[in-house]
């Protein structure tokens, strides 16, 4: 580069530095660190280092050893490059991610985030890249099979790995467009006001299913929440928790007992984040010890934060909350120009760019990506869109370009008390979670963690139907501050449990936009309360017994109702229902595959909706309505053994039993003694399965599970989704336990590919210590690495960022690896080119030094 060009770039850099007002003149982390990776009997990496950066470096190396193909696959999904691996089947996914532009957002967040977190993620990337540099043909065979070579890992890739999970649980189609069309049809039939009234009819809420009771929140805080609601246009006691019809995530459960309810005086916490079991698991278990961290738990391979975990002081678990953290806005398109949309009194041009999706055969597919003030235009991914309509999406995860949920999870890992943990959760946006907390001091807590948008009151169907996109008056007011979301510390009963049930009762004035568990109990949350309700103190063994529970209380009570009608009142049901009851005479209420009638009880479909039974008009539909009805039946029969059911109750019980009998006879014959011999107690665990529903990428290495004891999804054990469990005690944290089936490694030739399946089969957990001595007693392998941190912006390697680095960057400006002026050290953000983005990063760290 000539001197004029160099001088121009230097002047530009100086301008950036002056405009940012950077004040970074401080010493940073040590220059080198010895990093040790000890793998225990289950292959779980325990990374020991002197510094936080060293610990993350070792974690990056270990993660790549175990899951590099999974990491590469995930990165390519978010980049919109999965078609390069799987071909045409991946085109729609690539179009979606290119349209969203979330990988570019990850790059932006990576540049703008807090410097300390950026260094930790850079250290992780350095560890991944060290492994890649030394792989020398030892990469998983799937890289060759699919003809791909991994690029160097960068900070943005780790952020992108969590974005993928976030979108999976908070997709584009949440039913709001269909609701908008229903609303417009109603307006034509009954008018605006009546249409609003019909669309906003409050749901039937079962308050007994709420995690947070009003008496467990500080009255002064409740007053502040009410004041906040009124200031933002939300009235009190208006049941604003309108629920979304879209199906939400479910099946996870977690519970904790405080010091007053444990034999140890400290909290005991158990968490089962259930999801389809695949090989490898979606989850990745690890332990890092160095600097500010000594934490163990699970995250997602490639994203070094913990969704669920523990350290020596605290533990946390989570279940999906099902909150609505994204919205579609319908654009008003200029009839004369489809590239313009009306907004705040004028037509604006969409930002448009053309992306190229490439197939393995070299075919290139052009994708036009458009953006608006609301966000990307996603119309082609909205199944309910009508011809001529255009929709843009706004998502809480993209609300802040300098932070993300991964950062919050990393900060949770280094929390040591409830205050630390709440502060860490402040920046968490998605996946929406019910988080439970416990600590060694005996405290337990709960936090509803999500980027809940406070929607505009200018649109009467906020959170129910898509809002107009022609004015800023319909925009979100803000993200609700976490302190105003449901939370509590040390409830009076000494227990917190959650299983995708309702977070809080109708007294709470802010809308959460819930789908899963939006109106009451889930079957599992009800069962957890039954198991934890008595006043006894719990030991670790008692908590593990809860984990192994096989009771579905809703089915239990429906069968009890049928028995009551037939055997107590002497009123026969249908022939099929009577046959079912006769077969269930010896059933003890457990969903255990060793019982001869297991195929029958698996067919007891207790679907509860208006099209099935009028009872749903009284109790509400769905799982919450079913639980409300079944709890009422239980209470009634407990207090009145001669109760005569209504015709609707009788008909519902008869229907459930008869359908189960008929279906079982079709599948297994009419002789109950023959059923179990034909029933498959196993499940297929797919190899390199994925969230995008492309199926197993390596079906030849699918696994067949051993015989499972309980495949029923509505039980606590629920082995079909028991992807991970942790059980944490604080009187001796080294006696904590965990399990992650089928195993840690993605390599079918590894010892750790399926080694945890026998534990999973028996519903057992293995030892999960934090102490180095106990870990060394389980040691299977040992590796030592030396970590020399990459000093961000230190182009010339003198451990400081100053004008000399700016000169070297200017000399390499606008270059790529093939150019004569290329300098890899000047490629600060690691994207394979030296450009304005590297200038911005250097300017952000100008004046820093490393000692």
Task: Tell me briefly what this model is.
The chain is α+β, with helices and mostly antiparallel strands and 851 residues long.
What are the defining features of this structure?
851 residues, alpha+beta, 6-stranded antiparallel β-sheet, globular
Account of the protein in words:
- The structure is a single chain.
- Residues 238-249 have low confidence and may be disordered.
- A hairpin with a 2-residue loop joins strand 8 (293-300) and strand 9 (303-310).
- Helix 1 (3-20) packs across helix 25 (803-812).
- The chain is globular.
- It is built from 26 helices and 31 strands.
**Uncertain stretches:** 238-249
Strand content: 15-25%
Order of strands across the main sheet: 23-19-18-10-9-8-7-3-2-30
> Termini separation (Å)?
33 Å
Question: Helical region count?
Answer: 26
Largest beta-sheet details? 10 strands, mixed
Number of strands: 31
Helix percent reads 25-40%
Radius of gyration: 28 Å
What is the residue-mean pLDDT, rounded to a whole number? 92
Shape: globular
Structural class: alpha+beta
Draw up the topology in text:
Layout: H1 3-20, E1 27-28, E2 33-39, E3 45-48, H2 52-79, H3 83-86, H4 91-100, H5 102-112, H6 115-134, H7 141-145, H8 155-169, H9 176-190, H10 192-199, H11 219-231, E4 253-257, E5 268-272, E6 278-279, E7 283-290, E8 293-300, E9 303-310, E10 314-320, E11 326-330, E12 333-334, E13 337-343, E14 346-349, E15 351-358, E16 364-371, E17 391-395, H12 405-413, H13 418-425, E18 433-439, E19 444-449, E20 453-454, E21 467-468, E22 478-479, E23 487-489, E24 495-498, H14 523-532, H15 540-547, H16 553-568, H17 575-583, H18 598-602, H19 615-619, H20 622-639, H21 647-668, H22 672-678, E25 684-687, E26 703-704, E27 725-729, E28 737-739, H23 757-762, E29 766-767, H24 772-776, E30 781-787, H25 803-812, H26 836-844, E31 849-850
Parallel strand pairs: 1-31, 3-7, 6-25, 11-21
Antiparallel strand pairs: 2-3, 2-30, 4-5, 4-24, 5-27, 7-8, 8-9, 9-10, 10-18, 11-17, 12-13, 13-14, 15-16, 18-19, 19-23, 20-22, 25-26, 27-28, 28-29
Helix pairs in contact: 1-25, 1-26, 2-6, 2-8, 5-8, 9-10, 12-13, 16-20, 16-21, 17-21
